Structure prediction request, 328 residues.
Amino acid sequence: MRDITRRTLLLAATAVAAAGLTAGAAFAQDLPPLEKKDTYKVGFAQTESNNPWRIAQTQSMQDEAKKLGYQLVYTDAAGSAAKQVADVNSMIAQGVDLIFLAPREEKPLIPAVMAAKKAGIPVILLDRNVDQALAKAGTDYVTFIGSDFIDEGKRVAEWLAKNANGKSKIIELEGTTGSSPANDRKKGFDEAIAAAGGFTILASQSGDFARDKGRQVAESLLQAHPDADIIYAHNDEMAMGAIAALEAAGKKPGTDVIVLSIDGGKEAVQAVVDGKINAVVECNPRFGPKAFETMAKYAAGEKIDAWVKNDDKFYDPSNAAAELANAY
Ligand code: GYE
Prediction:
């Protein structure tokens, strides 16, 4: 009798555990499907609109939606991760078919990704990623479409290793704290510059990917480190701010101090032509065609890679003038 009871209990426990596992696994693996339709109502949750990169990205998304005849529900989080979460929740409430999300920071947007999944709305991450320990492509969202930010930072460091001509003291202007491009552009650069040897990063501070913040941070770091002879900015906007700070301090950007940046907008490529920026790694903001093409493939049931990678060009004095017309 005692044995039977024990066996019955054991069997019951095993059954409960198995059911729990199955339910958990099914939930974890289930991406919401996307119906094949002639037209869609699609959300695009933008981070902010304070720079040419963002404006070019929004334009590209709007142009492509218009071309396809889809309705685009567009929101601008105005630089606030909390607002961006609210924006996504409002898209869910409006019953969009799919959400394109440019997560401003890696961790705070996780609840938005999970809320969309729970509501049965597929999410495609655009240009920035979320924390990979907390959410995964193919499980929680469809895919991440964007550049290899680690490689972008590495390419800047590799250019320096070849072209610094004895200059070695670096000020690094980081992008938005907690954002994937800031984390990865720092990692790729710092590791490659350490491996190259002979360089010192005097200071590394966030300028929030913004021009005036970049100018202010560059100004105070140049005062603290007047011997700095290299400025590496995680984006063009902060590089333009740094150029203003250098000129205000009576220094010649591009000559007295090497200036390097990432993004490759027209203004920065023109600055390479003018000799004020020494080199720029491109980060292409024209996501529209690739974003909607990926969405169509998903609706057709095709397998989508966890990362749909964008290729980036490189601008220096050898090609900047010729490439100027193509830059956004
Ligand atoms: O470099 C910057 C923008 O997420 C890759 O964000 C993007 C970055 C881009 O604000 O200019």
